[in-house]
Every structure is written in C-alpha cells, then in structure tokens.
Amino acid sequence: MTQQVIHPMVKLQRQVHSLVDSNILKKTDSLWKIAFLYGDEWVHWKQELLDFGFTMQDPVSDFLAVDAWDEE
Asked: Which domain of life is it from (predicted)?
C-alpha cells in the first residue's frame, strides 16, 4: 500500500475553496485578501503563489481553477 503525498498548494487550495464556500471570501476577491486569514504564514504562501506565476491582484477563482500543481 502506497500513500500519496498531497502537494502543499492542493491543501491551500482546499482551504481557500472552503473559505469561498463559507462566504468568507468571494471568487472575485484578489489573492492578497488571503493574507488577512493566514497571518504569519502568509509570507510563505505569498512566495509560493508568486513562484507559480500568480500576482496578488489575481482573483481567487484563478487560483481555484488550477488542476495540477506540477513543479518543473
């Protein structure tokens, strides 16, 4: 039996999707709004998002639309 490792961005994506489902965030909100919810962890997540080509002005919907988090 092999255990599959979930990419950290998948975990973040699930958390953000939950925030949208709970009406805490809107899909049209900019990614920078996540900073208010992640506090000290935001520096790490912001860098991860930037590394994947996002800007902090991109809508949350763009982040949620990613199907695979392949790193090359």
From this structure: Bacteria
